[in-house]
Design goal:
about 150 residues
Length: about 150
């Protein structure tokens, strides 16, 4: 019984790393934009939209949704990193003479006056620049994202 369970677990986990079949697509001027064309639709799930936002959105709106999703994910990852670093350097930072202490959730409230306006200004400038640039197709990015987009160039 144990060996059957172990064997099925190993075979099931190996299926996650099996190559997926590549479906050749022909491109014509008549092909319409679909949500599946956006980067991020990966097997075995494919395009995941449980609330049906993509059904009611045109190409521009869908690209804006995707950009917002990626941006919010990156901000969330940086926030977690900020909490971890804040907890690790508590009291030993050269900033503010090491006066900031306690749980990381209270650190922002302990920052001296004026710094919060500076932080908000920098964030606002970064967001304004991102909004002016708008959505960029990853294939048109100025850098190669770990060799995934520009094979053989």
């Amino acid at each position: 019984m144990k060996t059957t369970v172990l064997a099925s677990a190993l075979l099931g986990s190996a299926a996650a790393f099996a190559p997926t079949p590549v479906i050749a697509r022909t491109t014509t001027a008549m092909n319409a934009f679909t949500a599946a064309d956006l980067p991020g639709a990966l097997s075995p799930m494919g395009f995941f939209d449980p609330l049906g936002f993509a059904e009611r959105a045109d190409e521009r709106t869908l690209k804006r949704y995707r950009e917002a999703e990626v941006t919010h994910g990156r901000v969330a990852m940086l926030a977690v990193l900020g909490f971890l670093v804040g907890e690790a350097v508590e009291g030993s930072s050269f900033l503010f003479d090491g006066q900031i202490s306690g749980p990381a959730i209270t650190h922002f409230l302990q920052v001296p006056d004026g710094w919060d306006a500076l932080i908000i200004t920098f964030i606002g400038a970064a967001e304004a620049q991102r909004a002016q640039i708008g959505w960029v197709d990853p294939a048109d990015a100025k850098y190669d994202q770990p060799g995934l987009l520009r094979d053989g160039e």
